[in-house]
Design goal:
By secondary structure, the protein is mainly beta. The protein contains 2 helices and 14 strands, in the order H-H-E-E-E-E-E-E-E-E-E-E-E-E-E-E.
Length: 262
């Protein structure tokens, strides 16, 4: 008990960083690729891509209860903007269509864990996480992708000096309930259905600085990767069928903001 209390006292900067409400500006760089698999004699090459930064805002609350160091974090972010699209007409080759397309994204997540003081200024917090993602693309007549995920992660936090906390974070899990909804338009009917799930991983770094006991500045960068599997084929009218091909998604997200410690 004496050793635990001593470690807790020396970790006051980490605890202060883990008890705050924050708002952050967000920039998410999208890197998305659809790849054909030869279904019904179609291409096995790259089909279309989207890439570019999408701005947004994030809200979060983080709590760490002493002396057990029980840890909880919940976060929501929403982004809207445009990306650079490269694709093709039906039956065409990749690169025959180039343009700018609208994008809207939202994410939510919650994690729970327990911190362990490895050193007087160093803490490890394993956690379990659940979350969800929605992405709306304005290609064709509009498409929306959604999935949830479950995962486990490890948060490492180090305080090299008063008021400053540096963090590294890694999470690995699996997407669940991956789904697509394709809107109808004048030339084709839409369709909705499940997509294949995949492993999902995220790695990140962050820094938190206490300008005062209650006002903190923070910055972070996360890298995330997951895949969607091909959907079933659906009738879209006129004797034609359509489906969503396999895809890969990479997000690099930078956040900058302020927090109020409590």
């Amino acid at each position: 008990m004496v050793l635990s209390a001593s470690a807790l006292a020396d970790s006051s900067d980490i605890l202060a960083s883990n008890n705050q409400v924050a708002v952050q500006f967000v920039a998410t760089h999208v890197d998305y690729k659809e790849i054909g698999n030869g279904f019904l004699g179609t291409s096995t090459e790259l089909l279309d891509t989207e890439h570019g930064p999408v701005p947004g805002v994030a809200l979060s609350i983080t709590v760490m209860e002493a002396p057990e160091n029980l840890y909880f974090r919940a976060e929501y972010d929403h982004s809207s903007g445009h990306t650079h699209y490269v694709g093709s007409y039906i039956g065409g080759t990749y690169g025959s269509v180039v343009g700018i397309t609208g994008v809207t994204m939202s994410n939510y997540g919650a994690r729970i864990g327990m911190g362990f003081g490895v050193h007087s200024h160093f803490m490890l917090t394993p956690y379990l996480e659940m979350g969800g993602h929605e992405w709306s693309r304005q290609v064709n007549y509009g498409e929306t992708y959604v999935h949830s995920h479950l995962g486990a992660g490890l948060l490492a936090q180090f305080s090299p000096g008063a008021k400053l906390v540096l963090s590294a974070d890694a999470m690995r899990g699996r997407t669940i309930g991956s789904y697509i909804h394709v809107n109808s338009g004048p030339l084709m009917k839409g369709f909705s259905g499940p997509l294949g799930n995949s492993a999902i991983y995220r790695i990140g770094i962050a820094a938190d600085y206490a300008f005062s006991p209650n006002i903190h500045g923070n910055i972070s960068m996360d890298y995330m990767h997951f895949k969607y599997g091909m959907s079933a084929a659906y009738s879209v009218g006129g004797g034609f069928v359509a489906w969503e091909p396999d895809s890969k998604t990479w997000y690099t997200t930078t956040k900058l903001g302020l927090g109020i410690a409590f």
